[in-house]
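Hi V.,

You were right to ask for the full record rather than a summary. Here it is.
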Amino acid sequence: MHPVAELLPFAVALAAAGALAGLLAGMFGIGGGAILVPIFFHVFGLLGVPEEVRMQLALGTSLAIIVPTSVRSFMSHRKRGAVDTELLKGWVIAVPLGTLIAAYVAAKASSVELRVIFALIALALALRMIFNRATWQLGSDLPGNPARFLVGTGIGILSGLMGIGGGVLNNTFMTLYGRPIHQAVATSAGIGVLISIPGLVGYVWGGWGLDGLPPFSTGYINWIAVALLIPITLSLAPLGAQLAHAMSKRQLEIGFGVFLILVSLQFFATIVA
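Predicted structure:
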């Protein structure tokens, strides 16, 4: 057991991560997983969680926290009338399906493999956001099915493997087809709901009964971390939504891109260390 004095800095780090995650959820339509996963990975390591299950535990716990955060963020954006409800309805099956596939893959993959996936996707998306040009479009409107269904499934898979709410992926998809960034951000909050709930179920199933998990864990979900961070992220998500609507498209893109680069580099550092 760790003395309270040793655990206090980790609790403070988790609380700070939760505050930033809540703001990010509202600002970028994401559940904050991009900041929570790296923090969880390191904190669980300092608490003695084995390498074999640490990354999976970070991903699953992040998705569990995203459930209420995404719902709160989605409700805030919907009040502003910016959500594409038609797209969300069309992805009710596709996105959860992809997330469940991701949970299965994560249960079979190694910690290093999951970190590589996380870092590469984050870096690729960051570069796209930072160097984005208005001419970078694949069309003037979103594609129809079956392409749209496959994109939704792909977003579910990649998001589930990163422990995120899918905001960054959906933002990229919608803006490539000419949709405004603010509409993409608002809709992404709803995508987070479609990802986080089946993701929670999938990661509970994937880690059920495994050795090495910390106390108060159900599968790859640690409920102590969930209980600590949910109140913080929920309280700050509406503020993030207000900030998003006060910023320009370019400010949102550059800010999000820089953030993703920092996260990606941090994970690459853990791989080569």
